[in-house]
Write a structure and sequence with these properties.
This protein is mainly α. Helices cover 82% and strands 0% of the residues. It contains 23 helices and no strands. Helix 13 crosses helix 17. The longest helix has 29 residues. This is Oligosaccharide flippase family protein.
Amino acid sequence: MKSDTNSISFFKNVLSFSYASLITAAIGFVIIPFATRLFSPSEMGKINLFSTVASLFSMLAIAGIDQSYVRYHAEVSDHGILVGDCIRLSIISWAFVSSIVFLFREYIAKLIIGESSLTLIIILILYILFTNIQRFSSLDYRLKQDAWNYTLHSVLHALANNVLFFFIAYWNRTALFALGMRVFLVILLSVIYIFFFQKSFFSQALHRYKASEKSKILKFGLPLLPASIFYWINGSVSKFILARYWGFDIVGFFGIALTLSSVVGIIQTGFNTFWAPYAMKYYESESVRIQKVHHYIVCILSIFVICLMLFQDIIFLLLDVSYQASQQIFPLLIITHVLYTISETTGLGIPLSGKTYFQAILVFLSMIVNILLCVILIPRFGLIGCAISVVFSDIIMVSLRTILGQKYYKSVDSFKCTIFTVVLLLFTASLNLFLPMFPRIVITILILLVITLVYLHEIERLILIISSLLREYLFKLSGKRKDDS
């Protein structure tokens, strides 16, 4: 009975932080068909490259300070000192990074849109500042375990950053104009939070404290930066090589496939947000549960992903016909999200051991493999070569992360089912490369049945947990109605 209660409580906590990713993923999924009809693949490719470059400079500007804030939030006695130091340091870092962006403005602009543009550089600099402000807003709610405001903030940020600016294409269908509108909406949302929703939080940056946490913040945050940069290179190099050999159109195809595949983030983000603090706190007392969680997450992810592959033809019918080439690599890109989420459970031993430098090494090795494969495969095979490079490099990283993680903490009791499932998923994803629709669907259904049989026990347990959650919700709902009456 206690085990059932704990399981229900665990899944409730995961779900509470999954609402944000669920809603934002749904919004993104709905907007993509409209976006593909508003922007040509070439303009969409430019928008995608802007996001990619902006993510790098945002990462450099925040310099691991956000991670320091998470790390020391529970330990410091005066949060005002920590908040003030973190925000001030991030603004100083932003000013430094912005000067570098301005110095190399012509090269950066040509990399993104193929021509020199001072307007684009100003948009980029402002975007870096205000997305980092949004980052601190989100972290504040997350660390307070305020799931409602965390969800509301995430949804509003997704609307401003990823959705509403697309509609400007009704008046102007160029990437530059749309990106300008995007930055305006992000600034507007940031100002609203600074002056209305989180005024007391941000006002701490204006106070001058005698004590300071700056050295501790930088000492923890800066060493994390190399791994983040390696992650960025690993996930972005393929786009620039695609643009170099095949043009902005192909980058647009790749970006749409990548965006659609990120629907797996519904599970991934909610799980990762809750998992890390939970595992760090209970790795000794809940070792058996942690081992079970691995099998549950593989089960949920594999069934969800197979279903996405099964209905992919319907999904791509919603897109403009000019983007149909994205479907060929869509299933392969889904696998990358699965691999990453699985490695969060298999590689748990690395952060627990304190040897976090291993993560930077692993990402670096994966990055080298990815770059080599991209250079070899993309000029010849284009999109397919790009997808294969990304998946293979991720397999290398996850495998090494698992081997090292299990050396320091045994978070998985058996890998037989996991390896078998991953092989089946890779095989199913590759069907798009050589089979027409009907035989592909038949084989995918058969593989879904096989995975269901493999994880039958986990599925039965999940059904019991979900039914318990529903009964609990209905009971509360009926009780509330009685109170109202």
